[in-house]
Structure to design on (724 residues):
């Protein structure tokens, strides 16, 4: 795979995001395109990751877990970043849209993070020799996921939509503090988990497949977030007894 | 059509497995493998096999995607019908 | 000063404090001394205090020091701070079959206890992989199918 | 919003004093809190068996866990007091800024936890055989920084969860994960004031603790008005 292919996929993905955000008429089909594209990209990833890519010099074929583990954790971090951006935006200007997007991104972030940690554990067994260890990276990631599980539980335990939105935004911002800790934990402590790979520490064909994996799962992230967002919006409108199809006039009057 | 593509998609790992080149058996069991970094007298150091782990991890990813998509589909009744602005 | 202006200034100050604290922990090298495992030199420098307690030792396996008896799964090797020749070394004994990745020159973290006979006995041996992912470079692990597909693709 | 008639610090001090007075007048609750954390320490000691070496090694962890559990009770109480008789609404509509309420409550709670830790220390010496004489002033600093670090996000979360359904579950569920890094720093810093600090790790953990305090304080300071204004 030439190294420009993941970049092309990324550009298509960004175009889809822009269409979803800026062109209201495209909202009916963007998620379908993203889901279909994601499926195609996943099929290609299966080929590139499991067959085409070279085995790693020491991990041999086990190294192929790289192409799904890292993209999952990336998607998780991207989702949590969307979540905190929405939380800040909500506190600055109240809007049901950002609240719904915050809910959607938190749930999907927890999903990707949980799968990513599971994959990491599976990967750790043959390479490190243990399933799990008291390691700063592993602990901080798990704790971050727990913080967001708490956030989701809090959302489902609070009924008043307006209070829930404001309070969970505050909880989201406090919870996000753990994300830089996750990111830097491998640099601060001499951790068992290796530090982040950079372009120069991964051989070219493997890097291309890794980036392809990132694009694939970010595409799924987009499709999932759109559908989960619609669900959150529908729940809001039923809770607020707004007419269901009333797109522009849903700002909270404060 | 939708289902056919789904079946095709799900069968890809199987196809990939079939298409996988046969493992380089003679080199893997060679008594003194020439180490890629040129270190002599290597006791071990290279993982042999381990495809089960790869399948487990990738399978978790695929199952997760399908599972989350299904969970969104199950909860769809609360969402507006497709095509709504 | 108007209350709004004052509030904004206070908020801005708080954001600045939070941001600079975050930057401080991220880039201020605070974590340099926070250890999750000891290096051999650090453990030896402890002297007698290091004996007996369950601790972790991390370092690189000294090339040429590995003795492995597969029948009794008795593994002996030396762990050093770094690949430099004069680095402090500690002898480690393990009864456990090491992970397949274990080799000379790789990073390891072992959990166990150091004793007065200057031997570190462990029952938990973990291999610390670097952040490098390399394809096999020479004839060591030939994967002709892959090389062929690569030449075709380029 | 009306122009605040009194300065932020003065208002915070008034809130702090009010909380202290309430604590003092309801001494029974304070006593209950002390006995709760004492029994936590005892339970750790019983559960771990007679291995004094292990107890001594893990003493900082037990101490901070006891403080953490106590903080859940005290934080919950902190807003239960206010939600009775709509007192928080009363506080918010007075010309006292919500931020002053935040600062006052954080330091009120932190002083409570700090005082509690001073009560727990001699008990920890008796139970776990730790040596306090190595760096007593640093130990006090660590205890204070840790108390502030628990209280700052704790006050925001308890303001949030005071009105949620199942609030007794919500507070720990939200608070504990966020506090893990801070607790790790506090436990490690405490450990190196009690045992020889061979690799000079104490300054690093102290800096980390201070940095977390600053982050939690300023983020909570920013968020609290948004959380409290609805009440």
């Amino acid at each position: 795979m030439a190294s420009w292919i993941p970049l092309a996929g990324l550009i298509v993905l960004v175009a889809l995001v822009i269409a979803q955000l800026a062109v209201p008429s495209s909202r009916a089909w963007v998620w379908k395109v993203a889901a279909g594209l994601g499926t195609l990209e996943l099929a290609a990833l299966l080929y590139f990751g499991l067959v085409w890519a070279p085995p790693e010099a020491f991990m041999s074929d086990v190294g192929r877990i790289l192409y799904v583990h890292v993209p999952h954790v990336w998607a998780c971090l991207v989702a949590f970043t969307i979540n905190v951006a929405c939380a800040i935006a909500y506190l600055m200007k109240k809007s049901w849209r950002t609240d719904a997007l915050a809910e959607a991104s938190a749930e999907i972030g927890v999903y990707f993070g949980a799968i990513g940690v599971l994959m990491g554990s599976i990967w750790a067994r043959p390479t490190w020799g243990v399933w799990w260890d008291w390691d700063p990276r592993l602990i901080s990631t798990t704790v971050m996921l727990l913080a967001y599980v708490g956030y989701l539980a809090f959302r489902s335990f609070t009924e008043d939509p307006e209070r829930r939105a404001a309070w969970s935004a505050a909880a989201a911002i406090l919870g996000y503090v753990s994300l830089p800790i996750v990111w830097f934990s491998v640099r601060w402590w001499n951790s068992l988990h290796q530090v982040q790979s950079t372009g120069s520490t991964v051989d070219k064909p493997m890097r291309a497949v890794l980036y392809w994996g990132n694009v694939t799962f970010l595409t799924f992230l987009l499709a999932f977030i759109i559908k989960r967002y619609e669900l959150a919006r529908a729940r809001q409108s039923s809770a607020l007894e707004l007419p269901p199809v009333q797109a522009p006039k849903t700002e909270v009057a404060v | 059509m939708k289902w056919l593509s789904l079946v095709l998609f799900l069968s890809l790992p199987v196809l990939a497995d079939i298409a996988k080149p046969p493992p380089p058996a003679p080199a893997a069991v060679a008594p003194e493998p020439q180490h890629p970094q040129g270190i002599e007298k290597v006791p071990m150091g290279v993982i042999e096999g381990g495809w089960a782990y790869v399948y487990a991890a990738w399978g978790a990813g695929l199952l997760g995607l399908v599972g989350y998509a299904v969970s969104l589909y199950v909860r769809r009744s609360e969402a507006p019908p497709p095509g709504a602005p | 000063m108007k209350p709004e202006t004052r509030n904004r200034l206070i908020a801005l100050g708080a954001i600045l404090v939070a941001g600079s604290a975050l930057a401080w922990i991220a880039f201020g090298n605070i974590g340099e001394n926070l250890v999750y495992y000891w290096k051999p030199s650090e453990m030896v420098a402890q002297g007698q205090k290091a004996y007996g307690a369950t601790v972790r030792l991390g370092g690189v396996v000294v090339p040429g020091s590995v003795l492995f008896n597969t029948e009794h799964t008795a593994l002996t090797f030396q762990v050093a701070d770094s690949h430099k020749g004069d680095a402090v070394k500690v002898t480690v004994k393990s009864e456990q079959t090491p992970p397949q990745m274990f080799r000379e020159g790789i990073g390891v973290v072992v959990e166990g206890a150091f004793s007065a006979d200057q031997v570190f006995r462990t029952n938990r041996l973990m291999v610390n992989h670097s952040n490098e992912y390399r394809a096999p470079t020479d004839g060591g692990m030939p994967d002709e199918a892959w090389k062929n597909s690569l030449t075709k693709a380029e | 919003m009306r122009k605040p008639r009194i300065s932020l610090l003065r208002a915070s001090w008034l809130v702090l004093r009010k909380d202290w007075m309430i604590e003092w007048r309801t001494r029974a609750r304070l006593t209950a809190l002390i006995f709760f954390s004492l029994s936590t320490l005892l339970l750790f000691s019983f559960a771990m068996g007679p291995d004094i070496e292990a107890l001594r090694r893990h003493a900082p962890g037990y101490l901070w866990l006891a403080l953490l559990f106590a903080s859940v009770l005290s934080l919950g109480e902190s807003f239960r007091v206010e939600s009775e008789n709509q007192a928080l609404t009363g506080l918010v509509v007075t010309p006292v800024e919500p931020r002053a309420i935040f600062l006052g409550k954080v330091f009120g709670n932190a002083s409570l936890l700090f005082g509690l830790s001073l009560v727990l220390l001699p008990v920890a010496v008796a139970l776990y055989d730790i040596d306090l004489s190595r760096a007593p002033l640093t130990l006090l600093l660590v205890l204070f920084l840790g108390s502030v670090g628990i209280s700052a996000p704790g006050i925001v979360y308890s303001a949030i969860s005071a009105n949620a359904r199942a609030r007794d579950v919500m507070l720990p569920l939200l608070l504990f994960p966020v506090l893990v890094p801070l607790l790790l720093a506090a436990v490690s810093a405490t450990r190196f004031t009690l045992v020889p600090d061979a690799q000079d790790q104490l300054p690093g953990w102290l800096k980390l603790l201070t940095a977390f305090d600053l982050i939690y304080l300023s983020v909570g300071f920013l968020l609290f008005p948004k959380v409290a204004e609805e009440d």
